[in-house]
Amino acid sequence: MPFIEIKTLINADIKTCFDLSRNIDFHKKSLKHSNEKAIAGKTSGLIGLNEWVTWEASHFGIKQQLTSKITKFDFPHYFVDEMVSGAFKSFKHEHIFITEDDKTIMIDKFYFESPLGLLGKLANVLFLKRYMTNLLKTRNQFLKVEAESK
Question: Structural domains in the chain?
Answer without folding.
Answer: 3-148 (3.30.530.20)
